Amino acid sequence: MTASSLPYVVFGVTGRTGAAAADALLRSGHPVRVVVRDSVKGRPWAQRGAEVAVADLTDLASMTKALSQVQGAYVVSPQHYNREDLFERAYLIADTTARAAVAADVPRLVALSSVGADRERGTGWIRMNRMFEQRLGETGVSTIFLRAAYFMENWMPMVGQAVRSGTLPTFLAPPQRPLPMVATVDVGSTAAALLLEERTGTSVVTLSGPKDYAPNDIAAIVSATLDKPVDLVVLLEAEWHKALADAHFSTAALAGFTEMTRGLNCSHIDIKSDPGAIEWAGTTPLERVIAELAQRQR
């Protein structure tokens, strides 16, 4: 087997960014191995010609096998917001991924991270991404940390409420301040592109969308998409717990969300806070994502 015939491994294909990464690689004719926990989830990818590996992110043996004999891998650390030990779980996944990458002698990784992962504290959930970066960085494996901006798809439940009631709630404030946001399809396609670059060493790439958007802008876009008035409502911190009741967050996850959102709102979490990062931008406008989200809610 030649080096060029070895597959690229993609984790997270049951989620948005992993699916987009695998899709981009397959469309460009590259061999792909998708990693799933349940073989049934791999069937659609097998039908497209991908190899399917079954692995548990906390099991070293299955992870090492999934990462063996590859050109590179896109790795993610899914976050378990219903667990009280979500940070401990995130470290276990990071440690297992790191040990498996070394054991399998993976030539390079692209690891999904988040803006704010360069900050030591005050980032809430993003601390899990920082753990992922730090543990992988200790391995010596060539790794690109892909720090994505706020996902455009995070607006899905709020768009659903706007469809039903004409009110668009937001945790982000002040409502007139633009924030970098990115579509998950751009995250996945960027991960695929970075894998194909075959660069060596460790680096950080930040990824935003084609422009920044304020909550006021989003309300206007949702209003235009639905062709009806939409009122933006900025939720006070005292209301966050009630607003998130349907998400079934653990107490630890809710505390992490609160700290992260505070960090976003006071600009402590800033896409430009790491001067050594390389800036990339996706091409998908928020208008397109909002239109897709609204269609699903109707």
UniProtKB/TrEMBL annotation:
Signal peptide region: none
Residue ranges occupied by any NmrA-like domain in the UniProt entry: 9-235
Highest rank taxon of the organism: Bacteria
InterPro entries reported in the protein's UniProt record: Ergot_Alk_Oxidoreductase (IPR051604), NAD(P)-bd_dom_sf (IPR036291), NmrA-like (IPR008030)
PANTHER family, per database record: PRESTALK A DIFFERENTIATION PROTEIN A, PTHR43162
Name under which the protein is recorded: Epimerase
Species per Swiss-Prot/TrEMBL record: Pseudomonas frederiksbergensis
